[in-house]
Queue: 3 jobs
Job 1
Amino acid sequence: MSELLARRSAPAGSAAFPVVRPRRLRRTPALRELVRETSLRPADFVYPVFVTHGRDVRVPIDPMPGQAQVSIDNLVREAAEAEQLGIRAVLLFGLPPGKDGLGTGAYDPNGIIQEATAALKQALPGMLVITDVCLCEYTDHGHCGVLLDDGTVDNDATLELLARTAVSQADAGADVVAPSAMMDGQVGAIRAALDAVGHTDVPVMAYASKMASAFYGPFRVAAESTPQSGDRKAYQMDGANAREAMRELQQDVAEGADVLMVKPALAYLDVITRAREAFDLPIAAYNVSGEYAMLKAAAANGWLDEQAAMLETLTSIKRAGADIVITYFAKDAARLLRSND
Ligand code: PBG
């Protein structure tokens, strides 16, 4: 054992109070900042936006104060504002003009996300456009894939549609595709389809560990994607299972994922930490709609200091091990970080 290690593992009693006083490093703001282990940057954030059809549309989302469904023209404005604040990426969710059993709006070359992506890349070429790859916003039944006669989701038939969706998004200019449907084999199917048409440079950000969570409630209002029957428990994971989460992550690595996502973030900080320890790939965590809503609601009642609670929450997600934080707070947090500089 080296001398350094020997010293580090010396019994705690060898230097203790009153010689050791941890408060010494907490005395002033400058000292605290000097020894801060985790910091937030606007470039860590991905800003999710709900894009709807029409022009000059801005429909506030009730359970997500400050967020709105926006038409493409307003999306460009939103994204420009985010870029000004130092945010480098948006994650797009689409509200199509119509829905059907096969979710055809998801892979329509002129669909809402495809048009939004093209418009955004043209207006702001430097802004990363990440697109959600899922059918739930486009199916009339609200499930993330196509249904068999018995009402269950047909995994393998859905893979082909997810692959078509990802290819059409990449064709429109998407920089990164993010499959969230929780179909087995979705990452591999999408990777193969992208590669087959020459989109070898488009990374896949995999919703690798995605739990069936009550914290998606506000999102489903925002995206109008609540399942019309049943729930998503037969494809999204059981939140009680951290070992299974590791298998899901491993599987997505094997299928070629470039970034691994853990979702939701706050109730699953342990999964983020385990993912960080087990894999060298970038880890993203999704600070989901319900996490945003509960903080906003408490703040609106005067029960929490919104800005402090927001920064503490985002810091906890990074401290747990996330490199990338997907959050509806992106603009608020970036604004605050800038004013604190
Ligand atoms: C679509 C999707 C959902 C979220 C992201 N992609 C909803 C769901 O799975 O029901 C939730 C994000 C959030 O709550 O902010 N499959």
Job 2
Amino acid sequence: MLRARILLIEDNEQNRYLAQFLLERRGHEVIPAATGPIGLELAVRVQPDLILLDIQLPCMDGYDVARALKADPRSRSVPIIAVTSYAMPGDREKCAEAGAEGYLEKPIHPETFVDEIERHLRSPPRQDDP
Ligand code: MN
């Protein structure tokens, strides 16, 4: 497993700390961003290997952030994993439509969280994954 540089866009401080802690403990580099606009700026500046994107963000939600990331040629190729606390039917499809390659539901489970993320680093995401 390669050490990955992961941009973490999450407004909730507790979730941000937990995700950062879990990822760093497994050797990954984490760049935290508390808002969508900061995340967009950092995505271009730090060129992450992966973006973890909270969907429930103030001002600019995760769908808009995903669309903006995919509209910019400088960040278009970076895979996005959407993280959402809504377990509504259709959410996964909505995230995919906005450009996210992966989808993860909150709450964060410390024992499986990093494995889920690393799955997206190992192989290109597939639409037909169960
Ligand atoms: Mn949030």
Job 3
Amino acid sequence: MRIVLLGAPGAGKGTQAKKLIDKFSIPQISTGDILRKAVADGTPLGKEAKIIMDKGELVSDQIVLGLVKERISQPDCKKGYILDGFPRNTSQAESLDKILAEMGAPLEVALSVDVDFDVLLKRLTGRRTCKGCNQMYNIYFSAPKGTNCDKCGGELFQRDDDKAETIKKRLEVYKSQTEPLFAYYGKKNIVKRVDGVGDIDEIFKKICSLLNK
Ligand code: AP5
């Protein structure tokens, strides 16, 4: 199954992607995670990307396309994958389609997790992630029992781009550059939408039924 996850920053794409990985044994390809790793590793690409990410803007198409093309060619993507945070604009979507046409394996579903903007703000400012195992928490909705990760005891951190001012910019960029993808994938008849507000497991059940799984 080849899926693209659509939805605003904080809609729960990453949260639901983790559940899809467990159920379908296909990898999640998150361009945000790949870029954050490059930032943490201090690579030249990471240094370039950090300046843009901290402003809440989009990293250049050229950078992300190279990363995605390389990743989807790996053997573990043969059975399918979950693209999370990519494509982010129509130009990225067109480039992806060309790459997939060459591979003879087009996208099957563009799944949107829908959440109102007022809820997103709380989700993003409240998000905490484990440095050790990437488990996600939210101090408002799903707080850890203590100050560290419930699963592995790792230290929890707040993303640099989860500050109120940067969040505002990310939501603006989403509206202007990413929302047009609904029309793009709508023409291909592959859009499925789920209400992303409510219990995380219930949302996942709805996703599975949308995917007929
Ligand atoms: P990226 O990492 O892709 O971030 P994003 O799209 O802004 O999405 P998020 O990761 O913030 O949110 P999410 O929908 O995954 O929500 P989550 O599950 O974490 O991108 C970051 C930056 O990298 C971009 O701004 C850009 O600069 C760059 N970039 C990345 N891809 C790029 C590309 N293709 N081109 C150019 N630049 C690119 O959930 C959020 C919170 O809500 C968590 O605390 C979670 O626990 C909680 N939560 C989730 N579901 C629920 C629920 N049902 N109820 C209550 N709380 C919930």
